[in-house]
Amino acid sequence: MSPNTEKACYASFVDSSEIRLSASPLEGTDVQALRREIAALRAELAETQKTTNQYLQNVAHQLTAPLNAIKWSIEAIKDPAVSIPRKMKLLSSIYSQGTILVHLIKNFSLMSNLETDNELGQFRNSPERVDPFRLAVNLANDFQPQAAEGGKKFDVDEPSFERILHGRKLLAVKNLVAQALSNLLENAVKYADLKTAIRVEAVNVHIVEGAKAQFGIAVRSVGLPIYGDEVKKLLNRGVRGTTAQQRIPAGTGIGLYIANRIMAIHQGTIYIQAKGKESSFTLVFPEARIK
What we know:
The protein has helices spanning 3-22, 25-78, 84-120, 132-148, 158-165, 174-191, 228-231, 242-247, 255-265; strands spanning 128-130, 153-156, 170-172, 197-205, 214-222, 269-275, 278-285.
């Protein structure tokens, strides 16, 4: 066979092999599946980018609002024409907005740390014995100036803590539980009706009928209704109730999500009850954490 003939036969073999491979039904199916997967990934990426942009816009809005309020109050205080009683109210407002700002920043900074803690199943800090009543009182005092602007007030029920705990304490990471409870209180202040009381009390919770009761810290308020199908979704990241979105369009929907992640680290949960305009959000702890 001459070299030219050999080359022609080799070329013919290669060409025919490529034709046979390209015509393979199996390969065609694989390529189509790959194209569909790539298209799905592109759509998912686009949706993620859209969600991230919206989230960052909401974060910026939520941080800007209290900062602007603080700036405006300080400018008003500097005005000699503003009366002393008015200046005192402005100082209270500054304290209130500062509390909101610190609360928001803590929420944002906790996001990645909580994910790591949940994955590892361990705490970054060692648990300590915490007095739930004293913690509730201190946090309620922090949010009271904000509540007072809407004629709302906190009612921390001391007898309920005494009756249920009998002097026992909560074994927990204090700053994390404080953040979880702060998130519930902040939501209550934000969404409760004007001139209403926000009640904080210790409760025995029967999540599973027939099971032993668990200790809980409940935050009860009267305000925006929560529809039945929304209750199970509120603990998911980025989810907000319909009426909450209508009243305050800008929001991240991470408050309850973070609180729930904190409770998961403590082997607990958040129990939500809603009926009409009445709602109750409860931090529920396992018996092993009551010492």
